[in-house]
Amino acid sequence: AALMTLTRKRGAATYAQTLQNIPETQVTTLENGLRVASEESSQPTCTVGLWIEAGSRYEDTKTNGAGFFMEHMAFKGTKKRPGSAFEKEVESLGAHLNGYTSREQTAFYIKALSKDMPKVVELLSDLVQNCALEDSQIEKERGIILQELKEMDSNLTDVTFDYLHATAYQGTALARTVEGTTENIKRLTRADLASYIDTHFKAPRMVLAAAGGISHRELVDAAKQHFTGASFTYKGDSVPALAHCRFTGSEIRARDDALPLAHIALAVEGPGWADPDNVVLNVANAIIGRYDRTFGGGKNQSSRLAALAVEHNLCHSFEPFNTSYSDTGLFGFHFVSDPLSIDDMMFCAQREWMRLCTSTTESEVTRAKNYLRNAMVAQLDGTTRVCENIGSHLLHYGRCIPLEEWDARISAVDARMVRDVCSKYIYDKCPAIAAVGPIEQLLDYNRIRSAMYWIRL
Q1: Which keywords does this chain's UniProt record carry (predicted)?
Q2: CA 134, CA 79: separation in Å to the nearest integer?
Q3: Is residue 236 part of a domain?
Q4: Which terminal Cβ of the chain has fewer Cβ within 10 Å, N or C?
Q5: CB 270 within 8 A of CB 282
Q6: Active-site entry in 53, 59, 71, 269
Q7: One domain for residues 206 and 311
Q8: Burial of residue 68, with CB atoms counted within 10 A of its CB: 0-12 exposed, 13-18 middle, 19 or more buried
Q9: What is the CATH number of the domain that holds 267?
């Protein structure tokens, strides 16, 4: 037993050692503008993916949903691998293929054995450069997407956040949903999807990222071999610029008394991705904490809002969020409650915001920073999360920020910074509100707005 204990201690690394021993992210930019980035490790598997600067924010009213439609079509065959041949070839490697579309980025990634990395790169290049877009597959996927849209309507959390974007960024691209409208999905044509690919799937807007037991030189060589199509590079001189999406303090209420629970989201305008205030706001959210009735701890939880929620039965769950985009963001909280608890929960949550602005303590900040450090190190589990960090960082920040630098930024935060930054974004600001369900008890907007400041003598 003593020998086993010694062995375990010898193999364990401290937090500081873990940060210092993370492999360096290597980045190479090809002549056509494609950025190739990787983080090498000794793992027998790897994740290789493409992160693309494209999403619903780049669509207009008529083409909204094209990116989501394209994500579905990407796995349905290419000109070299028609029909289901693409998926079968991925499965023959024992690999896992996935993808997603958001408001500002699209990703396709494959997790496979490290020895199959060159083949995975070739498959990804075929996917984005030679998508078949067969008419029969388009019609088949159209029906599947329409069914998905119906199912999404039953997810009230997603519906609430879509409403929140719609009211916060009304009249702009960020107000539209990622999936698009039913009318758009019904009328999008092959030409619309082909135009979307030709416009956005270009080398300067992409990052080929990889993590795991791979060689960066071999990854670059594979990228040079396969990502060279003439239609893949820009003939112009720059990436199309994004139009600014202005934040508006307003509300959307979708009252339905037949639903059992109310979903409420309240947000103020937050900073864009590259703004250093994000670190401080993430510390503030960690102070607020999160809660669900399935959690243990009861009213002894460290989060004051969670303790109040338990003691007074305020809600079923709540969670703060800090959603960032290129030039703006949404900083707020979302909660689910019984119809008669809405007013009390909103009062307590807004009071917690005011407390962050005026009386945050050092002990709370210390606890929140430790929580963030734990969440940060958890990103090291598995090659897929590391790969996603690499791809997303290069799109958002223009470089991959090492965890050691993130740790230094977190360590620099103190209670005064939290109070100052929260006051900058929260105090006396007009919020955006989205509410769904039995929301009769939700107070008038002006009453909620008046709780965004305290009268202090």
Answers
A1: Acetylation, Electron transport, Membrane, Mitochondrion, Mitochondrion inner membrane, Phosphoprotein, Respiratory chain, Transit peptide, Transport
A2: 9
A3: no
A4: C
A5: no
A6: 71
A7: no
A8: buried
A9: 3.30.830.10
